C-alpha cells in the first residue's frame, strides 16, 4: 500500500518498548485525510526523517521532551508539499520543512513550518546536512568542542547524519578527524570520500588499540553520540582540557538496566576532574537555535565549495519505517536515514 | 619540639597510603637549615596551608600534578618570612606567600613567591580567602557556574575554605545559596554568619529529603568539591541547563576501589545529556590564573564592605599537621585549615 489521496496512513505508538522496539511497538493505521479549517493547511509527507532521538520519545522516562502518547502518531521531521492552504504565505505545491510525524498527511497552521518554495534543490537535505543533524554537528562541535588547528577530534557513527558532518567540519577547521564506524566499507568511505584522517571499525577485536594508535597525540574533542564501548575506549585517550559535546548515547537507548558493577560513575567524575574536562549535554534547538543562520550560511558555502559531502540512506515506503528505525539504532544505515514516503 | 633556628623539621612522605593516610604515611625528620647561595633566599615558615588536593600528591595514580616522591618533603602553600636574602626585591623580615611545603625552612630563588611586605594585615589569609581557595571559589563559581539572580547554588563543605566563599559569592550575585556541612554547629554558622539561605547536615538521616525540600526550584549550579553521597542526592534535583564546576571529590580521595555495581556511569552521562548539563573539571592555577587580578580586587572590596566573612581553623605546631590533615579529609575542621608553624 502506497500513499494515496483517499486515506491517511500513520504509524502509532502501540506500546512502549522495553529494550529494542519490536513488531508490537508501532502499528500502521489508516484514517481519513483531514480537512484544513480556516487558518490551516494540509501537508502531504514526501520525506520522513528517522533520527535516534525518536527512541527517547517512545519511552516515558523523564527527558527533555514529552513522550509520544500511547495511541499517538510517532513524531518526526518531514519534507512535505502543500495540498490545500488557508494559511497566508503557503500555496498549493509549495515544498515545506515540517513536523508531520510518521504519516502521509498532517494539518498545520504554519507554526514552525519553513517554506522551501516551488522547486528546491535536493529537498530532503533539509532533514540532514542543511537541517537538524547538520546544525547539531556544527553547533556541538564549534560552540562546545571548539577544536583548534592541529587538535584531534573523534566522532563515532562517522558516516551518519551527524558524525559525517562533525568530521568534515573538524577538517575545515584544521583539526585532525578520527572516525569510528561499523565495518570496513563505511570506514573506507569516511577516509576516502569524507576526508577523515582515519576511521576505526568498531567491530574490530583490537578496536581500542587501533583507536589509540590513530590518536598518537591523544584526543582533544570527543563528540559523543554513542556512549558504551566507544566511550570506554575514548576515555583513557582524552587530553587535559578535552571537551565532550554530549549529543547522544545511542548505544544505551535500548538498555533496560544499568550494566553490572563496579560503579564507575565516581571514577568517571574523577577523570573529568584530574583532566579538567568539559562535558556539556545539549539539545540542538533548545540550546543552539540562534546559531542556525550562521550554520546555514557556512554550510551552504561549504557544500558549494565541495568541502562538505553528504550521503542519504533512502528507504522507500512509510510501512518500512519501523524496521528502518531499528537498523538506525543498530548502525546498519549508511548515511542519513530518510524514508521516502511518496513520489514528489 | 617547636620551631628553632638551629634545625629544620620536615614531614616527609614515608609511604604511599592505601585508603586513608595513617601514622606510617608521613615521618617527621630533621636536618640542617640550608644556606642560601647567590640568587637564593632562606624562608622560615609561619603558616602552612592544608588542602584536600594534598591527598592526591601522596598517591602515584596519574593526575594533573607529579606526586611527592617517597622520602620527599610534603608540598604545600605557606606564609613565611625572609630570614636571609640574596634575592633582589626580598629583604630580611619580609612576609611572603611561598610554597615551602611541610617544613620549617626552605630555600627559594623568588620564583612563584609573592612579597607581602613588612606588615601585612592577617597574613595567613593569603592561604585562604585571598589565595588559592578563594580564587578556586570565585573562578569556579563565576566562570563555570555563572549563577544568575534567583538561581539556586548548592555547595558542600559549606564552612570550609572554598565552600564558604562559594556560598557568599553566590549571595553577592543574587542567587540562593544552599550549603551542606557536617553537623548542626557548622550549619548554623553557614546560615547565621555566612548568610546561606539554608544549610543541610550531611549526617542527617533524611539528608536527601532535606536537600530537596530546601531547593524547591531545583538546583542550577552545583559546585562539586565532595562527590559521593552528596552528589547522589544532588543529581535528581539538577535543573535543565545546570552547571557543575568540578573542583574536588574529597569523598573519594581515600577510596581504594570503585563501589559495588551496577555501573551507573552511563546513567550519569545520560542525565547530563537529557538535562543539558555542563560539567567542567578545573585546576585553579592551570585554568584561571589569569582571573587572579579581578578576583583579588573584588574580594578585597567585598571583605571591606563586610560582604565576605572568613574563618580559620588554626592548629598549632608542625608536628600536628598529619592528624590535622586527616581531620580535614573527614570534614572535622571548621573553617580553613591552617597550621601555625611558628610565632611571627
Automatic annotation (TrEMBL), chains A, B:
It comes from the Bacteria. It holds the Pfam family ADH_N_2. This is NADP-dependent oxidoreductase. CDD domains: PGDH (cd05288). The keyword Oxidoreductase applies. InterPro entries: ADH-like_C, ADH_N_2, ER, GroES-like_sf, MDR_fam, NAD(P)-bd_dom_sf. GO terms for molecular function: oxidoreductase activity, acting on the CH-CH group of donors, NAD or NADP as acceptor. Residues 19-339 form the Enoyl reductase (ER) domain. Keywords: Oxidoreductase. Gene3D superfamilies: Medium-chain alcohol dehydrogenases, catalytic domain, NAD(P)-binding Rossmann-like Domain.
Amino acid at each position: 500500500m502506497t500513499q494515496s489521496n483517499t486515506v491517511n496512513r500513520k504509524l502509532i505508538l502501540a506500546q512502549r518498548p522495553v529494550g529494542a522496539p519490536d513488531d508490537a511497538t508501532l502499528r500502521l493505521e489508516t484514517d481519513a485525510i483531514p480537512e484544513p479549517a480556516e487558518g490551516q493547511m494540509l501537508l502531504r509527507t514526501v520525506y520522513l526523517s528517522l533520527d535516534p532521538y525518536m527512541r527517547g520519545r517512545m519511552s516515558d522516562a523523564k527527558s527533555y521532551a514529552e513522550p509520544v502518547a500511547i495511541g499517538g502518531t510517532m513524531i518526526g521531521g518531514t519534507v512535505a508539499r502543500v495540498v490545500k492552504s488557508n494559511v497566508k504565505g503557503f500555496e498549493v505545491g509549495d515544498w515545506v520543512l515540517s513536523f508531520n510525524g510518521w504519516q502521509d498527511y498532517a494539518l498545520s497552521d504554519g507554526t514552525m513550518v519553513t517554506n522551501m518554495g516551488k522547486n528546491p534543490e535536493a529537498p530532503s537535505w533539509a532533514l540532514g546536512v542543511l537541517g537538524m543533524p547538520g546544525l547539531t554537528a556544527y553547533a556541538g562541535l564549534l560552540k562546545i568542542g571548539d577544536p583548534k588547528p592541529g587538535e584531534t577530534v573523534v566522532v563515532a557513527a562517522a558516516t551518519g547524519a551527524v558524525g559525517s558532518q562533525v568530521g568534515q567540519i573538524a577538517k575545515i577547521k584544521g583539526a585532525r578527524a578520527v572516525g569510528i564506524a561499523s565495518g570496513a566499507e563505511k570506514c573506507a568511505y569516511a577516509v576516502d570520500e569524507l576526508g577523515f584522517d582515519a576511521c576505526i571499525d568498531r567491530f574490530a577485536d583490537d578496536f581500542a588499540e587501533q583507536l589509540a594508535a590513530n590518536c598518537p597525540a591523544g584526543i582533544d574533542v570527543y563528540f559523543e553520540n554513542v556512549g558504551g564501548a566507544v566511550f570506554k575506549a575514548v576515555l583513557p585517550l582524552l587530553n587535559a582540557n578535552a571537551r565532550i559535546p554530549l549529543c547522544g548515547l545511542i548505544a544505551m537507548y535500548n538498555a533496560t538496566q544499568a550494566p553490572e558493577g563496579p560503579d564507575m560513575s565516581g571514577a568517571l567524575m574523577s577523570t573529568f576532574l584530574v583532566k579538567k574536562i568539559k562535558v556539556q549535554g545539549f539539545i540542538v534547538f533548545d540550546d543552539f537555535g540562534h546559531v542556525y543562520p550562521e550554520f546555514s550560511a557556512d554550510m551552504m558555502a561549504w557544500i558549494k565549495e565541495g568541502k562538505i559531502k553528504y550521503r542519504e540512506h533512502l528507504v522507500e515506503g512509510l510501512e518500512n519505517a519501523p524496521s528502518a528505525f531499528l537498523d538506525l539504532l543498530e548502525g546498519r544505515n549508511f548515511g542519513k536515514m530518510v524514508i521516502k514516503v511518496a513520489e514528489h
